[in-house]
Structure formats: C-alpha cells, structure tokens
Design brief:
Mg(2+) binds at residue 119. Substrate binds at residues 96-99, 118. With 235 residues, the protein is of the alpha/beta class. It contains 7 helices and 12 strands. The strands form 2 sheets. Strands 1, 2, 3, 4, 5, 6, 7, 8, 11 and 12 form a 10-stranded mixed sheet that branches. It has a two-stranded antiparallel ribbon with strand order 9-10. Strand 5, helix 4 (97-105) and strand 6 (110-117) form a beta-alpha-beta unit. The N and C termini lie far apart (71 Å).
Amino acid sequence: MTPIQILRRRRQVPADVVERFRGLPVANISDCMARIVAAGPRLRPMHAGGALCGPAFTVKTRPGDNLLVHKALDLAEPGDVLVVDAGGDLTNAIMGELMTGYAASRGIAGVVINGAIRDADTLRASPFPVYAAGITHRGPYKDGPGQINVAVAIDGMVIEAGDLIVGDADGVLCVPFDDAPALCEAAREKHAQEIVTLAEIEAGRLDTGWVDALLQRLGAQSEYAQPSGQTLAKP
C-alpha cells in the first residue's frame, strides 16, 4: 500500500439534504438508526456550542501526525466536515487554534478528530464546531503516513467520504450517503412527535398508560394496586 494517498471524493450528500437535517437533534436521528450507530462517548464538543452538519471529508493518519490534515484543509470545500481518524491516541494534539482558525476561514463547517486537540481555552470560546477525544499540550508530528478520502472507523462507526456528519451537545453521528434522504424524513417525523409530547407534558395531559400495558405483557408483578399510567389534566 502506498504510505500516502490523496484521493478525490466520489460523491457527497446533496446540499438540500444537508439543509433538511440542519437543526434536527442528533438523538432523534440516532433513534431512527435503531440506536446502534455512534462515534463513541469520547468524542465530545470542544467549542462554545452549536450544531454541526455537513458532508464528510475524511483523513486517516498515523496517531499524533497531522501532515495529511494540513493537506485536507486546503482540499476540503466550504460546508465540508473534516473527519480525522488519528487512532484515538491522545499523546499528541492533531489540531489547535491555528488550524481550526484556518479551517473556519475556508468555510469548513467543523472538524471531528478521533484524537486530541490543544489550545482548549481558545477553542471553547469559539463557535466553530470541534469534536475530539481529548486534550493535550503536546504538538503533532508532520511526517505521515496518511490517506485522504478513504473510509475510516471511529469506535465502530464507519464513515465514508461524502457521508453526512451531524453533531450537537450529545455527540457525533454519521448518516450513510444512501440512507440520508429516508432517515431525514424519519428523523423529522420523530422530532415533530417529541414536540407534541412536550406540549402534552406542559399541559398535564401525557398518557403513560403504555408503561403498565407493556409491564403486564412482560409478566411483571407489582405490589401497587392502581396502575401508574394515567392521563392527568392540569388543575
């Protein structure tokens, strides 16, 4: 295998699909993906807050080395999400204030790093979306090897170049290219249902009878005579 490969991205989620996903909670999208897809709990937001949404521009690099990340910053298009698989190692930072500032200046939507960042105070004060596995002051090497626009995997979640990346305070999720349109509609419906449920809670009219029905079907035994699930009107 060639130690350094720079490939072209062959496809990416259309801009209109990205816009339809924008603003949807990651938790709603995850629920519609059977709750079996995740980038791992270590990938946490390192920025001041705000959601992430855009097509993946992937980098696979040796742990602690960011040579190919620098190249990817020059190749990625505005709106892209730079996804860096650095093996999850936290010994050396892959990015810091300078590189994220450059990424923002080029219109990149955000970065996801399966590795460490530095300049944490600056990144936390910035709205530019950065997700990473940890923080260290140690700087990176710039020797390679690495690959651009290949499939990467982060804690079992496979990300191919052009897949949709979404992120919020709950974490990061990859929506596969082929599944994006159908999942978008399902997630939007799920989100609309939750808005209705929140309104029912506020009005004191949430029906929780399904809990007792399910427990009865599962053969649960209870010392409580009255079922707990009921519809309560607000006084």
